[in-house]
Design goal:
The protein is an alpha+beta fold. It contains five helices and seven strands. The strands form two sheets. Strands 6-5-4-1-7 form a five-stranded antiparallel beta sheet. A two-stranded antiparallel sheet has the order 2-3. It starts with a helix and ends with a strand. The relative contact order is 0.10.
């Protein structure tokens, strides 16, 4: 057998195999890149956060207290106006009668005693009640001299009431020294207890409880500092109560 022929056949076979391998390799499809799937949805939660400002709350509480004071003043003025209107009607019936003259003179004398007692009390010069009582007493005396005995009687009673209120305010203040930042009401403020709570020896929860109060209990406010009001009840007990526990009647 011819060796050259065999060598050519082997070479041809090798070339054919190589070509077949190349064809097979080229016929393979390139791998398809995997597309990324959709991104997961992110839920955004919105929460309401309440930021409490202690200073702002204190200012709001002080404003609420001042509103109560103004309401008390307006109510007091309206009451006096109504009383004055009724007194004018009664005065027309009693004008220049002996009985009304004696009654007015007695009322003026009683108001004068109450006014002198208030003036002699320490610290009374700064009280608005002293100014009011003095004005009412002067006006009552003028009306009496004009023989308007009904008007004089009414004004004398107003003077006496203002003097008594001033002494009550002083009595409350004398039971405890005035505290820094304490502000007096222009007039005693009528209050009622809105929620059950404690009246304390000072303006704060760290002070001793003097007595407890139930809803509906009548109190009188005389001054305040921050969120606390100095009050007294009908039996004369005094102390400090938190603003949220009281309201206007």
């Amino acid at each position: 057998m011819d060796t050259d022929y065999l060598g050519e056949d082997a070479l041809r076979t090798t070339l054919l195999l190589s070509a077949a391998l190349l064809t097979a390799c080229s016929s393979k499809k390139p791998a398809t890149a995997t597309r990324p799937g959709p991104l997961p949805q992110i839920r955004v939660l919105h929460e309401t956060v309440t930021v409490r400002d202690p200073e702002l709350e204190r200012r709001l509480s002080r404003l609420e207290i001042r509103v109560m004071e103004r309401e008390a003043q307006v109510e007091e003025l309206e009451t006096r106006l109504n009383d004055a209107r009724d007194e004018v009607v009664r005065t027309m019936a009693k004008l220049q009668t002996l009985a009304s003259r004696a009654e007015a003179a007695s009322a003026i004398a009683e108001a004068d005693v109450a006014l002198q007692s208030l003036r002699s009390s320490e610290g009374s010069r700064q009280l608005p009640e002293l100014v009011q009582a003095t004005q009412f007493q002067q006006q009552g005396t003028e009306e009496f001299n004009k023989q308007n005995y009904g008007g004089a009687l009414y004004l004398a009673n107003q003077a006496k009431a203002a003097a008594v209120a001033g002494r009550a305010r002083l009595a409350v203040g004398n039971r405890g020294s005035t505290r820094p930042g304490e502000a007096l009401f222009a007039l005693p403020v009528r209050l009622k207890v809105a929620n059950r709570g404690n009246v304390r020896d000072g303006p704060g929860t760290n002070f001793t409880v003097v007595f407890s109060v139930e809803p509906g209990t009548a109190l009188t406010g005389f001054s305040y500092t921050d969120d606390w009001v100095r009050v007294s009840d009908d039996s004369g007990r005094t102390g400090w109560v938190f603003r949220n526990l009281i309201a206007r009647p």
